[in-house]
Design brief:
The structure is a single chain. This protein is mostly beta strands. It contains no helices and 11 strands. A hairpin with a 4-residue loop joins strand 7 and strand 8.
Length: 126
């Protein structure tokens, strides 16, 4: 049973920064591709960023490109999302997800992911 636990969310003013973490246990993290998604109230869950098992392949949503950075530490079984220059429209619950079958790829569609965390709230005030 793979478990994912996000942390690092909170309330921040526009222009500020937050760093989200997602700790993964119960599986072989180093073989998984990992992704971050977010869901704002009344909206569908949307892709934010993804990283392959080695960190060699990374993809971002256009809305966060240049502001967010995804990274991973396979020794710590953790994936990170550094969020800079935050905007009110970044307000959402942020979820990390694990794709366990094609870890060398980056997946933008949520349906490819096998396991999900419970989410962490990020609120950006104007």
């Amino acid at each position: 049973q793979v478990q994912l636990v996000e942390s690092g969310g909170g309330l921040v003013q526009a222009g500020g920064s937050l760093r989200l973490s997602c700790a993964v246990s119960g599986g072989t993290f180093r073989t998984y591709a990992m992704g971050w998604f977010r869901q704002a109230p009344g909206k569908e869950r949307e892709f934010v960023a993804a990283i392959s098992w080695s960190g060699g392949n990374i993809v971002y949503a256009d809305s966060v490109k240049g502001r967010f950075t995804i990274s991973r530490d396979n020794a710590k079984n953790t994936v990170y999302l550094q969020m800079n220059s935050l905007k009110p429209e970044d307000t959402a619950v942020y979820y990390c997800a694990a794709e366990k079958n094609m870890g060398w790829r980056t997946q933008v569609r949520s349906t490819f992911y096998d396991d999900w965390g419970q989410g962490t709230q990020v609120t950006v005030s104007s």
